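Repro:
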Amino acid sequence: MNISHDNLEALAVLISKKVMEEVQVAGTKPRWLTLEEAADYARASIKKMRTWIEEGYIYGFRRTGKYVVDRESIDKWYNSEKIDVGRN
């Protein structure tokens, strides 16, 4: 099969657009979450989220009486944990 350079370029553009559509559909949470959204994202209780914020494990602060939580700090903290599964 012989495909021209122009056809390859057009195919690459179509694939790129499709990938971007899929990424947008799958979506990611915005960086700044409400306390409720953060609890859902972290699969933890709202009370536990407040504790983690107060103890400095994740970054969050009160804005107009409500917490705002940094999703990236949740990711960073979760990814920093090393678990010893007892394998030697």
